[in-house]
Amino acid sequence: MTVLDWSHPLVPGAVTRDDRVAPRASWSAVVPAGQVLTIVDVGGNQSADCLIFDAADPAERYSVPDTITWQGNAYVRTGTVLRSNLGAPLMTVVGNELDRQDTIGGACSKASNTLRYGHHTAFHHACRENFLSEGAKHGLGARDLVSNLNWFMNVPVEADGSLGIVDGMSAPGKRVALRAERDVLVVVSNCPQMNNPCNAFDCTPLRMIVTVPAGPADDTVGTVGDPVGDTAGTDATTEYPTA
Amino acid sequence: MPTTAEQHQPDHQTEHQTDTVSAARQDARAQGGRTADAMPYVPASSSPYIPGGVPAEALTWAQTVAPGGYTHRVVARGTRIRLDDPTGDACAHLFLLRAGAPYERLNVADTVKVPWQAYLGAGHPLLSGDGRVLATVALDSSGRHDAFCGTSSELWNAAKYGDGRPEGPSPSGQSLFTVAAAHQGLTQRDLGPSISFFQGVRIGADGATDWTGSAGAGTAVELIAELPLIVLIANVPHPLDPREQYVVGPLRVHAWRSTPTGPGDPAFAASPERTRAYLNTIDDWESRA
Ligand SMILES: [Zn+2]
Fold first, then answer.
1. At residue B14, what are phi and psi to the nearest 5 degrees?
2. Chain segment B172-223, per-residue pLDDT in tens
3. Containing domain of residue A203, as a range?
4. Which residue of A has its CA nearest to B277?
5. 3-state secondary structure labels for all residues of chain A
C-alpha cells in the first residue's frame, strides 16, 4: 500500500496555485518573479523531471552546465542557483529536504529506453513525451528540450566515472522549494519510467504549490543542511565563484 | 606561440595604395598566397600538418582554429575527424547536430547515462536525444575531457576576464557557438549543453568539480561521424581553467573519408546499450538511404 503525504508549502505565504499532478502526467505553469514553487514528492522517490524557461523569451532556458559551472558542483542543493544558457539566474533552490538533487541524469525517452532496456520498451510512456506534449501548449518543440533537473532522483558519480540512477533518498511528503528570479515557465514531467528505480517502480502523484512568501525575507524553512532565508542566492546575479 | 584571441587580429600596419579601383584590386590580389597561424587549408590536401598515415587525397577538411576562434562544418557519415592539441592549451568545445534534421542533436545526459560512464574516452558514443550515435570517440591520447561544465557564457567570461563578447579579446564559447550555429541557419534554440576535449574535469565524492587540466602538448582525439553531421567547434579556455589570463592554444582539425562503426568493430560490441545504439543508427540511416 502506497503511503501518500500531500504535505504543505515549504515556504509559507499566500497560495496562488495548488495543483495535483497525476502519476505519469505533465504539468506547466508560469511562476512570477519572487514567488516560490514547492514541489511535494507525495508518494516518495518519484522523479519530477523539470525544465525552466524565461516566460518572455523561452530561447533562454535552464542549462545544466551553466548551473554546475557557476556553483562548482554537479549536485543540486539548498542555495543552488538554477541558471540559464546565458549563465543568468532563473530560479534559486530556497528549501530542500534531500541531501542532494539530480541534474545530470537527463530525462527518459522512448528512444533511450530502447538503448537502456531493449526494444520491447519502445512504447513505454516517457518524460520526453510529456515534455513534448506539455511544451506544445506553449509553442515549444523538440528544439526546446535540453538536459533537465530531476527532483527526488538519485544519480551518484563514482570515482571511476561510473554513473547511474540508483535507489532514491526521498520519502513521502519530502519537498523542494524554488524561488523565481524572474517570470519563468516551469514544465514538469511526472516520470512514468518503470524500468529503473527513479520512481521506486511505483509511479505516484506530485503536488505543485506556488506561494507569495510571507513575512520578512530572513524567514527560514525546514531543510537538510543550512537553513536558508535571504542568504542563499540573493546575490546570485553578481557572484563569481573563484573555486 | 600565440595564446590569446587578441594576437590573431589582422595586421593594420602594412602600407596600402588603394586610391583607385585598379590600385585596390592590385592591393587585394597581392595579399593572396600568404599564410597565417590559424587558417583553413584549401584544398585540404595542402595542409602542412597532415596526420601520419592519412593519404593527402582522402582529406576533406583541414584547418587550424585560432585560440579564441571557432569553426563549423557539415561532414558525411563515415567521416573521421581528428582534433590535435599541439601546445597542450587547446580546449575543443564541441556541439553536434544531425545535418538536414538538426532537431536531432547531441544529448549530453544520454551520452553519459546510457554508457553508465561520465568520463569521455576512447570508444565513448556521443548520443543524440533520439537513441542514436552521432559520433564515436575512436581515438584518445589525452584522457582529459569534460561532459559536465559545458562552455563559457558571456556573463562568465565578463566576470572572469572582463569581456565575453565574440568580437572582444576573450570570447565566450557560448557566443561563438551562437555565431557558428547562425552560419548553419540555426539559432540559440538549436544549441544545448556541449562537451569539451583536452582540459579535464573530475567529480568529487561531494559533487565538486575538479579541473584537472591538460595532459600536455601533442595529444589528439579522433571522432567517427556515424550520421551526417553539422559540427560546431569553439576553441576557448575551459570555464574552470584557473589561470587568470585567457589562455588557449591553437586547435588543428583534419577530417577524411573513412567508415562508420558497424558489426565487428569493438565499439559496436562494447556493451548491450551501445550495440542497440549503433543498430538504431544503422536502421534509421538505411531507411532514409
Ligand atoms: Zn522519466
1. -65, 140
2. 999 999 999 999 999 999 999 999 999 999 999 999 999 999 999 999 999 9
3. 13-213
4. A115
5. CCCCCCCCCCCCEEEEEEEEECCCCEEEEEECCCCEEEEEECCCCCCEEEEEEECCCCCCEECHHHHHHHHCECCECCCCEEEECCCCEEEEEEEECCCCEECCCCCCCHHHHHHHCCHHHCCCCCHHHHHHHHHHCCCCCHHHCCCCEEECCECCECCCCEECCECCCCCCCEEEEEEECCCEEEEEEECCCCCCHHHCCCCCCEEEEEEEECCCCCCCCCCCCCCCCCCCCCCCCCCCCCC
Element (H or E) spanning B71, and its range?
Answer: strand B69-75
pTM above 0.90, yes or no: yes
B243 at interface of A, judged by CB pairs closer than 8 A: no
Is A6 among the domain residues? Answer: no
Domains in chain A: how many in total?
1
A81-120 residues touching B, CB cutoff 8 A: 85-88, 100, 104-107, 109-112, 114-116, 118-119
Record: contact A65-B148, CB cut-off 8 A: yes
Q: Answer yes or no: is A231 within a domain.
A: no
Q: Which residue of A has its CA nearest to B106?
A: A146
* Ligand 1 centre distance from Cα of residue A114 (Å): 14
Pairing of strands B145-146, B195-197: antiparallel
In a domain, A3, yes or no: no
Task: Say if B273 is an interface residue toward chain A (CB within 8 Å).
Answer: yes
pLDDT for A242: 37
pLDDT tens profile B26-60: 999 999 999 999 999 999 999 999 999 999 999 99
The size of the A-B interface in CB pairs under 8 A is 147
Q: Is the Cα torsion angle B25, B27, B30, B36 positive or negative in sign? A: negative
Between positions 172 and 211 of B, the ones with CB within 8 A of A are 174, 187-194, 203, 205-209
